[in-house]
Specification:
Layout lengths: L2 H11 L4 E7 L8 H10 L5 E4 L10 H12 L4 H12 L7 E5 L1 H7 L1 H10 L4 E4 L9 H9 L3 E2 L1 E3 L5 H10 L4 E4 L12 H12 L6 E4 L5 H8 L4 E4 L1 H4 L9 H23 L2
Parallel strand pairs: 1-2, 1-9, 2-3, 3-4, 4-5, 6-7, 7-8, 8-9
Length: 272
């Protein structure tokens, strides 16, 4: 089993739900990411989702788009972002790390070279937002499987039937359900509607279903964790780096705020 699969098996045995924080590699500067990853684990993260900075992130709202711009301005490349996972692995061999990004940088590097880089640095999952599940093929799926890397796909309220079927066919690790019609950081979250959608997905797959987009606090995380296998939180964490610049004191305070939010979320989903 992959680290992601092992984590969900363990959580299910413990009757717990996964807490999956998202951060942007290289934000607010390249020196922050690895240490922050360790702090997220200490604060209760079960899996860490690391964004690969990209100049045209179609699924991301303003908060995460600006985080990507800061990372790129600070010199963080796709290769360097993956290597940050390798640095994290030097002292953490168990917490799964999922990369979320876009096809363009991967195609520039080359699929085989990129997948080798992921394997070398201990990456556990890959979510390429603009790689449609019904356009992926068994060759890529086989390459990822051989490297013990899960292929994660998004399902949304607007996903068409053929694409949904392809997600359930090719997806491994878990299903990432987008809770709202919109980009990351969207405000509206109808938990009753999300619950209905998640239950429908669960009827068609044995994969865990995790919910992201629109989760902002303990209350919303707890509401979602009642029916989902995990909650994914991004913008609510990333926003703390919005105005820190290179001020070390502001960066440290932002990290304190992020850890505090993580502890709030962890406590909420552990007390259903």
């Amino acid at each position: 089993m992959t680290r992601i699969e092992t984590t969900f098996t363990t959580l299910k045995q413990q009757n717990k739900k996964a807490l999956i924080p998202y951060i942007m590699a290289g934000d607010p500067n390249p020196t922050v990411t690895v240490e922050l990853m360790h702090e997220l684990v200490s604060a209760g993260a079960d899996i860490i989702e690391v964004g690969l900075p990209f100049s045209d992130p179609m699924a991301d709202g303003q908060v995460i788009s600006l985080a990507g711009e800061r990372a790129l301005a600070g010199g963080t490349s796709t290769t360097q972002a993956v290597q940050m996972v390798g640095e994290f692995r030097k002292s953490n061999a168990t917490t799964p790390v999922l990369l979320m990004g876009y096809l363009n940088p991967v195609e520039i590097i080359g699929y085989d070279k990129f997948l080798a880089l992921c394997e070398q640095n201990g990456v556990d999952g890959l979510l390429l937002v603009d790689l449609p599940s019904n356009e992926t093929d068994d060759t890529l799926s086989k390459k990822l499987s051989d490297k013990h890397i899960n292929q994660i796909f998004l399902l949304a309220p607007t996903t068409q039937k053929d694409r949904r079927q392809a997600v359930l066919k090719h997806g491994t690790g878990f299903i990432y359900y987008v809770s709202v019609k919109g980009v990351t950081g969207s405000k509206a979250l109808d938990t009753d509607e999300v619950a209905s959608q998640v239950q429908a997905i669960k009827a068609d797959t044995d994969l865990p279903v995790c919910v992201g987009f629109g989760i902002k606090d303990g209350a919303s995380a707890k509401a979602v964790a009642k029916f989902a296998d995990g909650v994914i939180v991004g913008s609510e964490l990333v926003r703390h780096f919005a105005d820190v610049g290179n001020d070390s004191k502001k960066i440290e305070q932002a990290k304190v705020n992020i850890v505090a939010k993580m502890r709030e979320l962890r406590e909420a989903i552990d007390n259903l």
